[in-house]
């Protein structure tokens, strides 16, 4: 005849749940076995095994112990349990999205490190922040940038993202290396040539003048000025700049010098 009651060690061995966990469930009033009236030791019965499986099943669904506790007393589940399951479903979907983003970010970071061997800490943190907040950046861009351009700026294929990040990494590396050099230095000019060529490739355009066409709103209209500034500020909040104030000031200066003749040249072609 099968044993009808179990000591805590027997119950733990039979169910595969540790004695420590059973103690914890008892302390939290989730699974309370009877007590031997003479010794005070916990005595588990077959009904406790069903209750334990109930706990384990709801834990498998990702429910917290506080939520599980609410469902330990009733012998049946009613329609209210559907709401709990739906809430849990939403949470699990969100967790899965977060895990997927983190896994892809790890793969992309490994790719960068394998190719570069060593990466500046500030640059890597900036790239990781960008990976983490890709969805937010994409959402913020809606209504500011044309939809067809947004698709090009935020490609789905990880391989495309890796290649872009590798080139951006090279750009920031050169900024730090060439900072302080004059605007007409060949290395500086080549750095900016490569950078703007990369941007044009991403948005599938042929000239810098076309870049003004990426916006879905009129950037010449002063009414949109505040909206554009807020957009830039929010992007900068999500993705910290990996360069110092000195490097940023130098980059702004050499870029202005670089862009001037190009704009004049393109204006003359019209």
From TrEMBL:
Keyword DNA-binding on entry: yes
InterPro entries on file: DNA-bd_dom_put_sf (IPR009061), MerR-type_HTH_dom (IPR000551), MerR_fam (IPR047057)
Limits of the HTH merR-type domain: 5-74
Gene Ontology molecular function, alphabetical: DNA binding; DNA-binding transcription factor activity
Record flagged with keyword Transmembrane helix: no
Pfam families per the UniProt record, alphabetical: MerR_1 (PF13411)
Keywords: DNA-binding
Coiled coil feature spans: none
Protein name as catalogued: MerR family transcriptional regulator
Provenance organism: Ornithinibacillus sp. 4-3
């Amino acid at each position: 005849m099968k044993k009808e009651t179990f000591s805590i060690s027997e119950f733990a061995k039979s169910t595969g749940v540790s004695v420590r966990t059973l103690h914890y469930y008892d302390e939290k009033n989730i699974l309370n076995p009877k007590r031997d009236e003479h010794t005070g030791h916990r005595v588990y019965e077959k009904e406790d095994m069903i209750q334990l499986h109930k706990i384990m099943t709801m834990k498998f669904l990702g429910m917290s112990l506080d939520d599980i506790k609410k469902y330990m007393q009733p012998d049946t589940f009613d329609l209210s349990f559907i709401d709990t399951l739906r809430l849990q479903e939403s949470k699990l979907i969100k967790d899965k999205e977060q895990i997927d983003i983190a896994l892809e970010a790890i793969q992309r970071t490994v790719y960068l490190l394998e190719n570069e061997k060593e990466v500046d800490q500030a640059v890597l943190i900036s790239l990781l922040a960008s990976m983490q907040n890709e969805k937010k950046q994409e959402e913020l861009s809606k209504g500011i940038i044309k939809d067809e351009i947004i698709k090009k700026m935020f490609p789905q294929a990880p391989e495309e993202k890796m290649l872009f990040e590798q080139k951006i990494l090279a750009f920031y590396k050169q900024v730090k290396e060439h900072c302080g050099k004059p605007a007409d230095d060949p290395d500086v000019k080549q750095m900016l040539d490569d950078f703007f060529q990369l941007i044009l490739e991403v948005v599938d355009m042929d000239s810098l003048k076309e870049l003004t066409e990426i916006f879905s709103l009129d950037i010449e209209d002063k009414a949109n000025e505040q909206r554009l500034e807020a957009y830039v500020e929010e992007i900068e909040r999500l993705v910290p700049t990996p360069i110092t104030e000195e490097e940023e000031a130098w980059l702004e200066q050499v870029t202005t010098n670089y862009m001037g003749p190009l704009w004049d040249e393109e204006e003359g072609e019209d």
